Structures are given as structure tokens and as C-alpha cells.
């Protein structure tokens, strides 16, 4: 079996076998770039090493030695030859880049004899001994696992003795003494002499790199980045070149385009007379790469051309490491450059314009989730790096926010009126908080999951929200919260990152990105390719207009209960819920009707004739009931009840399990007059907008939480009878549809029956997930993190659809529904509608559209295009 490949035997497609670095070194070698010679020991050899109980087999050792001889001939130098020594670097390189996680050894091949050869060849004894002492230290640390500090002590002592400040002041003679002392450390620590045979050094180093695959930081890096543990790393053995042999030498790193903006101009830095690690260590301040033009014009020209060639060759922005040895350029690494979302978009569009890539390639290489960076404020990088992390909750709604904390919506509104920047901090949010949520820069809650009230409402507003942050203890009465032993009082500054769930102490400066023309171009291309339609979940004309601006093609879910989360309306809603008689309820409903109608008119106008799905009331009742005594007293007075009676009524409505209680269609079955009022508002508004504004509105009336076919057939009649009545009243021939949510598992199982009546389906994957797992949406935040940490769940099923379980129900619902009605329109309006991974799944099962919060519309458009490609 072939375990070792010369660089010229490989290519860029062999990442699995040669690792990313090895494959790219091979590719660069084969396109004729100046790459120092070398070979790669494969990832399979790494696996074999572990299979053989951490031993290199004779066959592998044989091949390493054989390739070493080939390398010697190629370089016209010899391993261990005192007159003309070959020195090599030994570096790890797995299939997936794991920067800094595994080990590297430089200058391998140095010993008491070759060090003299290097001194002679470079005419620089100091350089030779400095390399030697660095090699012993690196080897001792990485291969022999002797703590680095032991070596550092010796170095520091030598500097102190001579009164030096910098390492560079050490003379050749000082360094010779240090080498002796270093070797003694090795002997004392391992009981053996430092290995002087280069071949022995090489094998030991290769084994050490294989071992470093399983060091703790590499293992955690793989866990964090979903990299499998069983693929192993390759090892690259490459002849050394030196950037630190004088002023005609140097080293640097450069991107072919600006990784922050995407601008097409070399971006990077270099140092004269330095080694790669000096650039990274930040001891000296590097110069802008473009200044190399003045210092070494020839080398710069060659580098510039090479960078362009590499970008053309890989058809993507490259991140390149190079070294200049005695005015000669060497390429040490190239890889795809990491970039910000703005840079990714700019580069992708410009590369299409340059003819480098196709539109399809441009679409496919963008990360939809990263678009969030462009749509929401972010923290200024420098300010963020100085910030102290306090706690982490769920990343409920993206963006960055900073402000003074307040514990009630009222306090937030007052502070905002006084021109303050605020954050609303609550144990959990309820409908009364809506105005405070609107006014605040961001929201922090101690309880609740990704689909809790706070999360859903915040996403709808495009407002930063961290939810379910269990480690903060909120005391609303005392107007403070505590984390560990720190106390934060009303008016103190904190900052939130809703994209990561991080909560920081103090204020952090935020920046609001601007949408570029490139962004619009990517969206336009996405629309050419996608087959899934993208709608939005919106409950207000404002949200609806934002969504239209982001490209929404309709409303997939208008949650009518959200329209009542308003302090002026809440009393009527409460009266409606708490009414003891039909008359009383109808009176309350009559108050609500004009408000609802106004809402719908605003929304229809904002949508300019695009389809609008309005869902009948689905309030988990507990969200609407007054809790505080003063509210209960006010309501009692208002409704002419005794306070005692009022409390009894409220208690009578209290449920053990409100999410599984009297909500959704169940409410309308008990009180059909609610469905009648809402249908009236929906229809009258549509007729009015059609007549006055000329938009051809076709309302889609949606009945929530159906699990039994008869629930739907009963309510469909209520809705249709009302709608027809209004058409007659208004002498209108307006069209409308009646459909249903698919959000109870049972509904998906009898979808064929339901499709007899329903004119469309919309999957409510929030409830469907809640009920399929039996996880409460509002409480799951408490344990989901533990589930993820312990590997029980790969991710939060409320965030990304569980394809094998919940997905199976969705698929069944689609198949059964379309068995009855082959062209049944089917969408999804749960939070998964804006999640790229879930969108791939919804595309694959043939949904007609996804519906998501306004700020996720661009993400969904891009993801839907990727799914179609
Ligand atoms: C759902 O359950 O997925 C849904 C969209 O409805 P809601 O979140 O309002 O329960
Ligand atoms: Mg639901």
C-alpha cells in the first residue's frame, strides 16, 4: 500500500488522503509554483498508526525513508550531511483545517554536526545555533513532551546574566551554551540523550504529529466544528526555507481579496528578516503587503502574479503564506480565505462578473445564516474583544444590542422617551410586554425556549433577543438581576448578542451594516433558481412592509392573537375571554372587530395584493390573563364583577397544561362567535381594500390546531357561512380560501381526510415538534443544552427540523394531503421556515412555500436557491 506521496504525486482533490495542506501543496507544485520540495504521509498512515497500537509499521517506515532519499536528490542536499545538510519542517494537516490545534516541528535534521554546515552555508553562526536551540526546544516540547517552560527558564536566565532585553541580543556563543543546557534538560527529563540521528528525529516527529491528532484541544475543536474523530491527520515533510537569514529575506501572509469587505486588492502583511511565527507572535509590527513593492519590486511582482494565478486556479479567494529566502519567493501554503458575510457576497458577485465562477457557484458558496450579519447590527470588533462575558442563553433572535437594563415594559418606555438606550430584562415575557419589547434595543429573558413568546415576537420585530438564560436570576420586584455574585440594577449597562446567546457586562459599541448592491444581486440570482416560494410571518403592517422590502412573496402566517398584545386592546380581549355570557362576549367582540379590520386593511395594503394567510385566534389563554392584583381589580371594575368572582373566573380558566389546553380551534368550537367576528374582519377588510385600493386580495383563512377532521369541518362551516353572508351583504364576488394548520401529529396522520375540506395546509412545526417530542416549547430551554452537551440531541429540534421524526410526519402529511388533492398548496410557518437546513428538507418533500420572520426572508431565499441547485 502507498502510504507516502511526493508533492508532485498529489492534487487538490486528494484532501481526504493528503489533508488540506498536503493536497494544496501538491496542487501548487503541479501548477509550477515555487514550493519547497517535500512529501506527505497520508491520513491512512495515521489511522494505521492507531490501529497498530501507536506504532509505525515497517512498511510505512520503509516508505518514509525511501521518499526522504528522493527528497535529498531533488534538493541536492543530504539529511545529516555536515557539509550540505537538508533540514525539514514536519507539519500536521487534516482534511478539515484545524488551525493551531496540532503540532509542528521546524528545523528537523539539525545536530552537532549539521549545525556547523548550516553556519557555513549561511555564513551566519548565530543563525545556525539559534535555529538549533529552537529545534531542541520544539522537539523537546512536542515530541518528548517536556514542558516548554523548562527551556524558557534557561533562555531567560542567559538573558538576565548578560543584561539583555531581547532574544536578538544573544550572541552565537551564548546560544552555544544554551544548546548544551537544553540538551541537558532533555537528558534529565527523558533519561536519554537528545536524538542526533536525523532519521530517528524524523520518525519520532511524525509519530508525535499523529499523536497530536488526539490531544485535548484537537478533540474539543473537532467536537465544536462537527469534524469526525476517526479520519486522522496527514503529515507534511518539507525542506526548510528561511525568511530570517538577512534583509533580503522575509515572510508573510496575504489574502487575494480583502476578507472584511471583499475588495479586489491584495490584503495582508509581511516582515523582513523574520520567520512565520514572528508574524503571528506580534513581537514586531508587520508592514502592509503592498509595501513589499517598494522594498523588493521583483519579488512583489512575482507574488502578485502568483496570487492571481492561485485565485484563478481555485476560483476562490485564497489565504496564502509565503517566505522569501535570499530574494527568492517560496509558497508555503494556500487555502480558501475565511471572510465576513459582506466580503463573501462582494467577492462572489465580482467573481461572476469577472467570469471566474458561474452564478450557481456564487449562490452555492454563500452561507445563508451569515446573511444575518448584514441585516442586523453587530458589535464593533475591538469593543467586543475587551468585553466581559457574563452568561450565555439561547440565541433567540439575532443581532447585537446594548443599553441600560429595565425590568418592566413601562420602565423601558419611559426611559426611551427620555432618550435612553434600553434593554428589557424579564423572567419571561408576556403580552403586556409588547410595547417595551418594541421600544427596547434588545430583550433578555431567564426562561423560555427558541419558540417562546419572547423569541417569536422578537424575531418578528427583527429585534435582538437572548432567551432562556438560566444562569441569571431576575428579581423584577427588586429591579435587579444577579449572575453568580454580581448584581445588576436598573439603569446598569449590559450588552446582548442574539446570534450567539452571549450576555456581556457593560455597553459595547454596535455598528449597523448597510445593504450593498451586491446583496441585491445575490437575491436576484437566488430568485432565478429557487422553486420554493418565500413568505413571511407578519402581524403588523410595519412587519409586512419590512418583509416585502426583503422580498417576501406573501404572508404565510398572520397570528391574530399577536394583534392583541397591546395595552389598549388587552382589556377587550380579556373581557372576551372572561365573559360569562354570549351577550357579554359579543359586546367585547364588537369592540375588537373594528380594530381587527383596521389591522387587516393595513396588512393587505402593505402586501399590495400578495397572498395573505390569516390564522384564527390561537392564544394559549394563560398568556392573556391578568396576573397582578391591580390588573385584576381594574378588570373586575370594568366588567362589573366582584373582585372575588373575577378571581374565581380566572382560576376556573387556569390550566395545568395551557399549551395542550383550551387553545386554537378548540376555543372557536366553544365560542364560534370569535371565529365569526374574525372572519368578518378578514372579509370586510379584503373587500374594502379591493374596492378602494384596487388590490386583488384573496384572503386565506387558516384554522389552527386541528387534530380531528370534524374540528375542521365544523369550523369551516362557521367560516364559510360568515364569509358568504358578508359577500352578500357587500355584494362582492371576492374569492377566499379556507385551510388549516398541520401542527398536531394526529392531523398529519389523517391528512387525506383533512384535505377533503382544507384548501391549503400550513405546517406549524413549532407545535408539531413540541407534541412529537413531548417537549414543552416554553420549558425545553432548560434541558436542551444538556441534551446537546451529552450528545443525546445533535441540535435543538425547535431550531432545525428533526428530519427523521417530525420530518417523517411532515412528509406523510404532504403525501396523504396530495393523494386527496394533487395540487394542494402546502407551506410551513413554524420557525423552521427560516432555517437553511430545514429549508433543504422542505424543498425535498415538495412544499410550495416556507414562511418566516421578515428578517429571515433573504436567508430563506438564498437557502431555497441552494436547495434547488
Ligand atoms: C407553529 O406551531 O409552528 C406555529 C406556527 O404556530 P404558533 O407558533 O403560533 O403556535
Ligand atoms: Mg402552533
TrEMBL record:
This is Pyruvate, phosphate dikinase. Signal peptide: none annotated. Its EC number is 2.7.9.1. Residues 516-867 form the PEP-utilising enzyme C-terminal domain. It catalyses: pyruvate + phosphate + ATP = phosphoenolpyruvate + AMP + diphosphate + H(+). It comes from the Bacteria. Substrate binds at residues 559, 615, 743, 764-767. The active site is at residues 453, 829.
Amino acid at each position: 500500500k502507498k502510504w507516502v506521496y511526493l508533492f508532485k504525486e498529489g492534487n487538490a482533490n486528494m484532501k481526504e488522503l493528503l489533508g488540506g495542506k498536503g493536497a494544496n501543496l501538491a496542487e501548487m507544485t503541479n501548477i509550477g509554483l515555487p514550493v519547497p520540495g517535500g512529501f506527505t504521509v497520508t491520513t491512512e498512515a495515521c489511522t494505521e498508526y492507531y490501529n497498530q497500537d501507536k506504532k509505525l509499521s515497517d512498511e510505512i517506515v520503509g516508505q518514509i525513508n525511501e521518499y526522504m532519499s528522493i527528497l535529498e536528490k531533488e534538493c541536492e542536499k543530504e539529511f545529516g550531511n555536515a557539509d550540505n545538510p537538508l533540514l525539514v519542517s514536519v507539519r500536521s494537516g487534516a482534511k478539515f483545517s484545524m488551525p493551531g490545534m496540532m503540532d509542528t516541528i521546524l528545523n528537523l535534521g539539525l545536530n552537532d554536526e549539521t549545525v556547523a554546515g548550516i553556519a557555513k552555508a549561511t555564513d551566519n553562526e548565530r543563525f545556525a545555533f539559534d535555529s538549533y536551540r529552537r529545534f531542541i526546544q520544539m522537539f523537546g516540547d512536542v515530541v518528548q513532551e517536556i514542558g516548554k517552560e523548562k527551556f524558557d527558564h534557561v533562555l531567560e536566565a542567559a538573558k538576565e546574566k548578560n543584561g539583555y532585553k531581547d532574544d536578538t541580543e544573544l550572541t552565537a556563543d551564548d546560544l552555544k551554551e544554551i544548546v548544551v543546557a537544553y540538551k541537558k534538560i532533555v537528558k534529565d527529563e527523558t533519561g536519554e540523550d537528545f536524538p542526533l540521528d536525523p532519521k530517528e528525529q524524523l520518525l519520532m516527529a511524525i509519530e508525535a504529529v499523529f499523536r497530536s491528532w488526539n490531544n485535548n484541544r484537537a478533540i474539543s475543536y473537532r467536537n465544536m466544528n462537527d469534524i469526525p474523530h476517526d479520519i486522522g491527520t496527514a503529515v507534511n515533510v518539507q525542506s526548510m526555507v528561511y525568511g530570517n537569514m538577512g534583509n533580503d529575506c522575509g515572510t508573510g501572509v496575504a489574502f487575494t481579496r480583502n476578507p472584511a469587505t471583499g475588495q479586489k486588492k491584495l490584503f495582508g502583511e509581511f516582515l523582513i528578516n523574520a520567520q512565520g511565527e514572528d508574524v503571528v507572535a506580534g513581537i514586531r509590527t508587520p508592514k502592509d503587503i503592498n509595501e513589499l513593492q517598494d522594498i523588493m519590486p521583483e519579488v512583489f511582482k512575482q507574488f502578485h502574479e502568483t496570487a492571481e494565478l492561485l485565485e484563478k486556479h481555485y476560483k476562490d479567494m485564497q489565504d496564502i503564506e509565503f517566505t522569501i529566502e535570499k530574494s527568492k519567493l517560496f509558497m508555503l501554503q494556500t487555502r480558501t480565505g475565511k471572510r465576513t458575510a459582506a466580503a463573501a457576497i462582494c467577492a462572489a458577485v465580482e467573481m461572476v462578473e469577472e467570469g471566474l465562477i458561474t452564478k450557481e457557484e456564487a449562490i452555492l458558496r454563500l452561507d445563508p445564516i451569515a446573511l444575518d450579519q448584514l441585516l442586523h447590527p453587530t458589535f464593533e470588533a475591538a469593543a467586543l474583544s475587551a468585553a466581559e462575558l457574563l452568561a450565555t442563553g439561547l440565541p433567540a433572535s439575532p443581532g447585537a444590542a446594548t443599553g441600560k437594563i429595565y425590568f418592566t415594559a413601562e420602565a423601558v418606555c419611559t426611559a426611551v422617551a427620555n432618550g435612553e438606550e434600553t434593554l428589557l430584562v424579564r423572567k419571561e415575557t408576556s403580552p403586556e410586554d409588547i410595547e417595551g419589547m418594541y421600544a427596547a434595543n434588545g430583550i433578555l429573558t431567564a426562561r423560555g425556549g427558541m419558540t417562546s413568546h419572547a423569541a417569536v415576537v422578537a424575531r418578528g420585530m427583527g429585534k435582538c433577543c437572548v432567551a432562556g438564560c438560566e444562569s441569571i436570576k431576575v428579581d423584577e420586584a427588586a429591579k435587579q438581576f444577579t449572575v453568580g455574585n454580581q448584581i445588576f440594577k436598573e439603569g446598569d449597562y449590559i450588552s446582548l448578542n442574539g446570534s450567539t446567546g452571549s450576555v456581556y457586562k457593560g455597553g459595547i459599541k454596535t455598528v449597523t451594516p448597510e445593504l450593498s448592491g451586491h446583496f441585491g444581486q445575490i437575491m436576484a440570482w437566488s430568485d432565478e433558481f429557487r422553486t420554493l416560494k418565500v413568505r413571511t410571518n407578519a402581524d403588523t403592517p410595519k412587519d409586512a412592509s419590512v418583509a416585502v422590502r426583503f422580498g417576501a412573496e406573501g404572508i404565510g402566517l398572520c397570528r391574530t392573537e399577536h394583534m392583541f398584545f397591546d395595552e389598549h386592546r388587552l382589556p377587550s380581549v380579556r373581557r372576551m375571554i372572561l365573559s360569562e355570557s354570549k351577550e357579554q362576549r359579543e359586546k367585547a367582540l364588537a369592540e375588537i372587530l373594528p380594530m381587527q379590520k383596521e389591522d387587516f386593511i393595513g396588512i393587505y395594503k402593505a402586501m399590495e395584493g400578495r397572498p395573505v394567510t390569516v390564522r384564527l385566534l390561537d392564544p394559549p389563554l394563560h398568556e392573556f390573563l391578568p396576573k397582578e392584583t391591580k390588573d385584576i381589580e381594574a378588570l373586575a371594575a370594568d366588567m362589573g364583577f366582584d373582585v372575588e368572582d373575577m378571581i374565581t373566573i380566572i382560576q376556573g380558566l387556569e390550566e395545568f397544561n395551557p399549551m395542550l389546553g383550551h387553545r386554537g380551534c378548540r376555543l372557536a368550537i366553544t365560542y364560534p362567535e370569535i371565529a365569526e367576528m374574525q372572519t368578518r374582519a378578514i372579509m370586510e377588510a379584503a373587500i374594502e381594500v379591493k374596492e378602494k385600493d384596487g388590490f386583488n386580495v384573496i384572503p386565506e383563512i387558516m384554522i389552527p390546531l386541528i387534530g380531528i377532521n370534524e374540528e375542521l369541518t365544523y369550523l369551516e362551516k362557521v367560516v364559510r357561512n360568515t364569509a358568504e353572508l358578508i359577500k352578500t351583504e357587500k355584494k362582492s364576488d371576492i374569492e377566499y380560501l379556507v385551510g388549516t394548520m398541520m401542527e398536531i401529529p394526529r392531523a398529519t396522520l389523517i391528512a387525506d381526510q383533512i384535505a377533503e375540506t382544507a384548501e391549503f395546509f400550513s405546517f406549524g412545526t413549532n407545535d408539531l415538534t413540541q407534541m412529537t417530542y413531548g417537549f414543552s416549547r416554553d420549558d425545553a430551554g432548560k434541558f436542551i443544552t444538556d441534551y446537546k452537551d451529552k450528545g443525546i440531541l445533535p441540535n435543538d429540534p425547535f431550531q432545525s427540523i428533526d428530519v427523521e421524526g417530525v420530518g417523517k410526519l411532515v412528509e406523510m402529511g404532504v403525501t396523504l394531503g396530495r393523494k386527496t388533492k394533487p395540487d394542494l398548496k402546502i407551506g410551513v410557518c413554524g420557525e423552521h421556515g427560516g432555517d437553511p437546513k430545514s429549508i433543504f428538507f422542505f424543498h425535498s418533500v415538495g412544499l410550495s412555500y416556507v414562511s418566516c420572520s421578515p428578517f429571515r426572508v433573504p436567508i430563506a431565499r438564498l437557502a431555497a436557491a441552494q436547495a434547488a441547485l
